[in-house]
Design goal:
InterPro entries: GlcNAc_PI_deacetylase-related, LmbE-like_dom_sf, Mycothiol_biosynthesis_MshB. Pfam families: PIG-L. Its cofactor is Zn(2+). Zn(2+) binds at residues 13, 16, 155. This protein has a 7-stranded mixed beta sheet with strand order 3-2-1-6-7-9-8, with helices on both faces. With 302 residues, it is an alpha/beta fold. It is globular, with a radius of gyration of 19 Å. It is built from 8 helices and 9 strands. 33% of the residues lie in helices and 14% in strands. The protein has helices at 16-30, 64-79, 122-136, 153-169, 194-206, 242-250, 261-269, 271-275; strands spanning 6-11, 34-39, 83-86, 99-100, 106-107, 140-143, 186-191, 234-237, 276-283. Bound molecules: the ligand CC(=O)N[C@H]1[C@@H](O[C@@H]2[C@H](O)[C@H](O)[C@@H](O)[C@H](O)[C@H]2O)O[C@H](CO)[C@@H](O)[C@@H]1O and zinc ion. Residues 12-13, 16, 152, 155 line the site of zinc ion.
């Protein structure tokens, strides 16, 4: 099936796409646009929140990746996304793992595997994405900012691979064997609005919830995954699809608990908490904007 307008999303692990872009993806599918998701690893090193599945863990049967392959298939069905691809094929690059630094940000695990995504050769990884870009020919690309949102090494690497592949795919003389050159018109980085985050935290604290997003003060300093509102370029209002996003998140029981902070915020703030998804523009001209100065559509101006 061919689509006039095509969005490509690049993410590191299964579930990242729903957290960052689930409502946008569901909306754009419903609007008749092409939505292609590339996931760089299967999340083999993840935690397991379902006790009866703990045997799948990396340090036991090491079958969490296979299980999360099923989870993301379920989540894509909920969102209506029919074009999901693994970078280099399933299992080509492995989840690098992570641990928390004393200062609260993510750093690579100590003993990363030899095919960990964090250790991948950037050009080798980017070439797989060049081939996908030249096949899909998207007008819009969305991925992480340079810090990978909250700093996970695989998110940082996914940002690097996505931005590098977008450049390479457009070069006519580069790897002609990977397809005809294609220039992506607009590139965005996923963002979380500071004002929305503060309002959400305020609602949680007013409701007596001091554990969700523990340690975060509605009026205090916020972690680096929050973007100052003046740096936002687009707000995709997909509140009509927020239930799909939450249902897609429920498809990841090993990673997301329905009594965790994600759902707590949704329960307290409502559909605006996760039904409006924000973006920073990196490449391309801003199209039509609303009164708040933000685009409402990533394809605006194309
Ligand atoms: C949302 C996301 O990127 N999840 C990653 C992340 O998961 C975290 C990790 O397991 C950490 O040890 C936990 O404390 C934290 O709660 C988890 O969110 O890192 C995993 C390992 O690389 C990855 O599989 C998961 O998708
Ligand atoms: Zn992730």
């Amino acid at each position: 099936m061919s689509f006039d307008q095509r969005l490509l999303l690049v993410h590191a692990h299964p579930d990242d796409e729903c957290i960052g872009n689930g409502a946008t993806m569901a909306k754009y599918v419903a609007d008749g646009r092409g939505v292609t998701l590339v996931t760089c690893t299967a999340g083999e090193m993840g935690e397991i929140l379902v006790p009866e599945l703990e045997h799948l863990a990396a340090d036991k049967e090491d079958r969490l990746g296979e299980h999360r392959k099923g989870e993301i298939a379920n989540a894509m069905q909920v969102l209506g996304v029919t074009d999901h691809r693994w970078l280099g094929g399933f299992g080509r690059f492995r989840d690098s793992g992570m641990k928390w630094h004393d200062d609260g940000y993510a750093i690579p695990a100590d003993d990363i595997h030899d095919n960990a995504f964090w250790a991948a050769d950037l050009t080798v990884a980017a070439d797989y994405l060049v081939e996908i870009i030249r096949d899909v020919r998207p007008q819009v690309l969305a991925t992480y900012d340079p810090f990978g949102g909250y700093g996970h090494p695989d998110h940082i690497q996914a940002h690097r691979v996505a931005m590098y592949a977008a450049q390479l795919a457009a070069v006519p003389s580069y790897r002609k064997d990977l397809g005809e050159p294609w220039e992506i018109a607009k590139i965005y980085w996923n963002a979380m609005s500071e004002s929305r985050m503060r309002a959400g935290l305020r609602a949680l604290r007013d409701a007596g919830d001091s554990t969700s997003f523990e340690g975060m003060d509605p009026d205090g300093p916020l972690p680096p995954f929050v973007t100052a509102d003046e740096n936002l370029a687009a707000a995709v209002d997909a509140q009509d699809h927020v239930e799909q996003k939450l249902d897609a998140l429920r498809a990841y029981p090993t990673q997301v608990t329905t009594d965790g902070p994600f759902f707590a915020l949704s329960n307290n703030v409502g559909s605006t908490a996760w039904g409006i998804e924000y973006y920073r523009i990196v490449k391309g001209e801003l199209g039509e904007r609303g009164e708040d100065g933000l685009e409402t559509d990533l394809f605006a101006g194309i």
